[in-house]
Amino acid sequence: MITKQATTDEDLIRRIAQGDRGAMQVLYGRHHVRVYRFGLRLVRNEQIAEDLISEVFLDVWRQAGKFEGRSSVSTWLLAITRFKALSALRRRKDAELDDEAAAAIEDPSDDPEVTIQKKDTGDVLRKCLEGLSADHREIVDLVYYHEKSVEEVAHIVGIPENTVKTRLFYARKKLADLLQAAGVQRGWP
């Protein structure tokens, strides 16, 4: 039996490469929620995000022997998730466009001021995050929700570190503007 605290993710990957199902269960237990949440933020569909979990961990089972350790296991998992999510989005491009068009239709029942009064700051923040471009939202998600470093984000997304820094700068600036427009007064760096 594998104890969760006593075994590193890297040890688990080595054991999975040798066919250890128990190691796979422990790794899944540690990371499936993070993989699901990251996938859900990318695809914005619960069913597709659930399917991504299966695909990601099936890939881990099949490809564990190819893990080179150039990044942390969680970074590797999120990189696999991102690739799978982008592939799923390409397959569903038409449906995504319809969802975006529907989201762009204004709700006449409440004006922005009434909406802000009904929601707490967290809801307003999540709504403002939706106003960012997909590239900026992805960077913010990885840095702030998954606590990844600039270097890890660059590895996951496959772009240079300076590009990550630039996107993060512009994402923060845009988010500050969106929050201010939504009536949330707060100093953002």
TrEMBL record:
NCBIfam families for the chain: PRK12515.1, sigma70-ECF
SUPFAM superfamilies in alphabetical order: Sigma2 domain of RNA polymerase sigma factors (SSF88946), Sigma3 and sigma4 domains of RNA polymerase sigma factors (SSF88659)
Family: Belongs to the sigma-70 factor family. ECF subfamily.
Gene3D superfamilies membership: 1.10.1740.10, Winged helix-like DNA-binding domain superfamily/Winged helix DNA-binding domain (1.10.10.10)
PANTHER family: BLR3042 PROTEIN, RNA POLYMERASE ECF-TYPE SIGMA FACTO
Span of domain RNA polymerase sigma factor 70 region 4 type: 125-175
Taxonomic placement: Bacteria, Pseudomonadati, Pseudomonadota, Alphaproteobacteria, Hyphomicrobiales
UniProt KW keywords: Sigma factor, Transcription, Transcription regulation
Protease is among the record's keywords: no
Residue span, RNA polymerase sigma-70 region domain: 27-93
Protein name: Sigma-70 family RNA polymerase sigma factor
Species assigned in the record: Rhodopseudomonas telluris
